[in-house]
Amino acid sequence: MDQLSDEEVEIREEEEEEEEDSDKEDQDLDKMFGAWLGELDKLTQSLDDGRSERPPQEKPPLRQETNIANFSYRFSMYNINEALNQRENVDLDALMADLCSIEQELSTINAKPNSSGSMARLGITDTKVRTIIPLVAGSGTIRAPAGQHGRPALASNFSLDDITAQLEKRVRGGQLEADPRFSELWSLSSVSSVCSCDSHRFTGTLSFFFKHSYLDRETSLILRNIAGKPSHLLTKEEQAAKLKAENIRVALEKIKEAQVKKLVIRVHLSDESSKTMMVDERQTVRQVLDSLLEKSHCGYSADWSLVETISELQMERIFEDHENLVENLLNWTRDSQNRLMFTERIEKYALFKNPQNYLLGRKETCEMAERNKEALLEECFGGSSVSVPEMEGVLWLKEDGKKSWKKRYFLLRASGIYYVPKGKAKASRDLACFLQLDHVNVYLGQDYKSKYKAPTDYCMVLKHPQIQKKSQYIKYLCCDDVRTLQQWINSIRIAKYGKQLYINFQEAMRRSEAAYDWSSLSSSSIKSGSSSSSLPESQSNHSSQSDSGVSEMTSSGHTRSQSVVSSIFSDAWRRGTQGEVRSCSHSVFLPSSVCLCSAFAHVSPLLSYQ
Amino acid sequence: MAAWDLSVTVEDLGLDAPPVTISVASDLHIGGVILKLVEKTQIKQDWSDHALWWEQKQRWLLRTAWTLEKYGIHADAKLVFMPQHKPLRLGLPNGITLRLRVCFSNPVFQTVMGICRMLNIRHPEELSLLRPMEEKKKKKDKNLAPEIYDLTEVPLSSGTLSRPCLYNGMPAHFADSPEMEAIYKMLSVTQPPPAPEVIAKQYRPASVVDKAHINGRWLDSSRCLLQQGIQENDKLWLRFKYYSTYDMDPKYDAVRLTQLYEQARWAILLEDIDCTEEEMMLFGALQYHISKVAQSEPQIMSNNPAMDDLDSALQSLEVKMEGEGSSASDLLENMTAPELTDYLKIFRPKRLTLKGYKQYWFKFQDTSISYFKSKEESIGEPIQMINLKGCEVAPDVNVAAQKFLIRLLIPAPEGMNEVYLRCENEQQYAQWMAGCRLASKGKTLADSSFQSEIQSIRSFLAMQKTNSSSSSANASEESINTHSLVSPRYHKKYKPKQLTPRILDAYQNVAQLSLTDALMRFLQIWQALPDFGLSYVVVRFKGSRKDEVLGIAPNRLIRIDLSVGDVVKTWRYNNMKQWNVNWDIRQMAIEFEGNVNIAFSCVTADCKIVHEFIGGYIFMSTRSREKSETLNEELFHKLTGGHEAL
């Protein structure tokens, strides 16, 4: 994997001879895959040699079938193709390294079950999995999809029947009977391969599914009977069956590991360059970010983000750290112009760096002491339920199918976004539900003033992540200024993700602190360095309390009780020790010891009397 | 020292009996007085709980070592000799009334601790006692007085144990007899939904001011019951007062969780807290689900907390082993990909508006539906395959009209595709609907929840059936009037028939929750309401001429303008420096950081109540870091005490 970082991405400047050149690149690609797959082929054959002595054995028809040994490997031909067209010298070597690591993974998994005799049969599965690849390579027709320049789609290039037939031959030839004691467990009944070419998805997706039965009727019956029985009541036979099942379970999990989908993605950097890397379907955005950071040697900061830009709709979204990257990318269409950007975005965690600007529902930006920020965050995210910031106000809503915008009074609640219907008051029960947040994500709209005649360029969009084209199901909202926009976007994120957001932030900070410790920088300086107010209108820094009304006065104006107890108390207070908790009949001071153990951080002014 | 006569009324002799007169000297200590008194009455009984109450001064004489002189008692003092623990009728959040013996001599804070210990409620600091609403005298009380469950026989535990010893999942005193067990079950299991008429009859606060009046009824935590005019057998309500639930663990908090849920449920049904229609439907769905699950698995709930440590460890070990075994076999079963196949009708409003429903052969596999012209052609390529992952599923059902529609909103790059599937009958509908719901969450038919999903859909259909057929005449236990699940406002707005599909709609998202999870979800949604945790008091800000409302929340104070109903100002405890109470003019003054000072007098509640609310919330916030099991009672009184704290 590390090889990626060592590769320099070369960008050729000339744009001529596009067709010819990219064809050449194609051949290179073919060659590389060919070489790699050839390797696999050899490996497989050596395995086959050792096993093909026994004749294949037909087993009774299956009852339990499934695609356990489904090995599917996806990669985005579009992205590679695009890279080729842009005549970048894609770091295919790095890619090869990734592919090889998959191969290695497979072989270790293969080796492990073998080591414990009873699982030897699992080797079969893996062997079969491997055989696929040479077959595909044999057909030698991997081509870039029809994404650009009218290239034929990958899927169309080989005949499904051919592959199936070959596969069947190969697999049957290579089949072997494992440990005779357990031989009844394993039977290969049918091999079917499916080349799934979902038209909405990447064309380069190759998936092969094998169907196996791996438990005989007898064992599964026993298992069914004993389900729920306490272990000590089982007969020997039953226990054996249970053990069997357990072993199988362990083995299956390993197989599942091996079935993880991989996706080759192209990540664009802010300097117009790009990187190609392989991600597996289990990786979270955080993990991908970590590996990108490791490879790109850029300074570690929590602000590094993966941003999805949907150019067709002119919108973008910062992926949250806990999200699954592959899942999100699979929403793109095959000819998508969408991009994945790797870039620093202060707005990603501005919410946590200056929570006072987002959580207090204030109209103006202000500063806050660090410990008060922490207390505020703890208060909002530390409890059992997260309170959604009270966001409400007039926003512009784009009318369906028109380029006109209407004003409405919107409110955010934990259960969704609401608006006040015409002629109604703001009471909760009269609110109309605009949308619920379970199925939609919030995007930042770009340049909608010219695209949709929006009143301002501060727009947000709510849509289902799968929607990629213009649709009535996309909702466009426009704010008067950027601060309102950021407040709304962040509040919606809180409503949608809750505590997870805060966990993400803490995790990101932990990593960045660790990174800075390593580079012998003080972590505190980084913290404060990045904590400057991120909202553009931070100059309006006046105290929010000045407008608070008649009842508020300065401390000189307020009267204290004149009772005797009062003086006793204040004397006691002056004499008292700093840490002691004190209160009295008429006054309760928040003493420092309370502060220390609570969220109420503050300075008690009276302490200075001592 | 000269002896003089002290007359003491001994309650045990009867109300009309003349006071007992004993001869005492001023240097006699209280213990001696009691001794003499007991000798004089010549009654042999356990007097250990008895103490002297000084009526004129409204105080207990609990320090037995103090002399009469030290207490300042002279011959004119009217003393009463009576037990410190007396029966009290206690209304619980779930509407049940208990009769139990509580302490009349200690501060209410400790009385509540005692009650909670008896009822097995942890964190008693969150609860307090409330004077009930005056019940309007109805015409000669036709309906019988509500049943009162007697707990007065429970021995008083003097121990300071934070947790009582449990036997069979309940405090030992509940395990004594079947009757007691039944009472414990009532405390720890949610009540069935109330009849709509019951909800409609209850008092509902119509405005913020009405709500504010309720908060004037809280008892003072730092004084005892007798000092606050509470007499033997009076009725009080036990309620959660501070909305900052700490360390809720369903394993140990069966009663606490149930009662908190009941309080939340009633707050919503009576519109004590406002919510939107969508939220109300979700609350309704959760209530329905909770009552259904509570009826079917009440044992699990009451038994869970019962296990001793060893017991629970053993049991969980066993469960774990079983779980692993079954997960293996589950996994194996997963391997056979189950599928649904049947003739259904499909309608795609966008494309074929005129054609209406067309029949095809449908196949449900994994998370996808595919359809074919006929069963015979189902081996080949389907006409279309629809992956339901991430789609929205909504029911459109009318049992009476035999309409069973599944409405699917399927995301695609071009937008959402609307598809209707029409099923022939309930059975078919339940299966396919269950499949669609699981698939929308990315689960296949092989998922273990498939069968229970079918069950829950069918039971909900059954509910609609009983609703639509002959009114509520045949109200069996199974059927619930959906009007029982929402506030009276929606009784007027919707008929049960209209309400059912809406609740059903919300129900599909919660149908899989376990009882505990459903309770917790209910509480979470309640806690996420914007107005959650606000206790209102009508106040008059210094310098202002009109009444305004102060809302006290777990983390902030808000000021509400009565004429507009809007929040005009928020102050957070975070910024609070100190607060003072001027007891003479009954005014509170609070100082915040940045030289912000506010002062107000309280109109609908005593300023002690407001003071206690604020101090109480500060106290609640100190708990989280301390992690200790014992309650820092001293700190509570310091923060909330007032006069008596010194």
UniProtKB/TrEMBL annotation, chain A:
Residues 1-31, 44-64, 529-562 are annotated as: Disordered. Keywords: Cell membrane, Cytoplasm, Cytoskeleton, Membrane. Residues 48-62 have a biased composition (Basic and acidic residues). GO terms for cellular component: cytoskeleton; cytosol; plasma membrane. It is a peripheral membrane protein. The keyword Membrane applies. It comes from the Eukaryota. InterPro entries: GRB/APBB1IP, PH-like_dom_sf, PH_APBB1IP, PH_domain, RA_dom, Ubiquitin-like_domsf. GO terms for biological process: signal transduction. SMART domains: PH, RA. The keyword Cell cycle does not apply. Residues 529-551 have a biased composition (Low complexity). It is found in: Cell membrane; Cytoplasm, Cytoskeleton. Residues 388-497 form the PH domain. Residues 1-28 have a biased composition (Acidic residues). Residues 552-562 have a biased composition (Polar residues). Its main location: membrane. Residues 261-347 form the Ras-associating domain. PROSITE patterns: PH_DOMAIN, RA. PANTHER family: GROWTH FACTOR RECEPTOR-BOUND PROTEIN, RAS-ASSOCIATED AND PLECKSTRIN HOMOLOGY DOMAINS-CONTAINING PROTEIN 1. Belongs to the MRL family. This is Ras association (RalGDS/AF-6) and pleckstrin homology domains 1. The gene is RAPH1.
UniProtKB/TrEMBL annotation, chain B:
One of its GO terms (biological process) is integrin activation. GO terms for molecular function: integrin binding. It comes from the Eukaryota. The keyword Magnesium does not apply. Signal peptide: none annotated. Residues 345-441 form the PH domain. SUPFAM superfamilies: PH domain-like, Second domain of FERM. Keywords: Cell adhesion. Belongs to the kindlin family. This is FERM domain containing kindlin 3b. The gene is FERMT3.
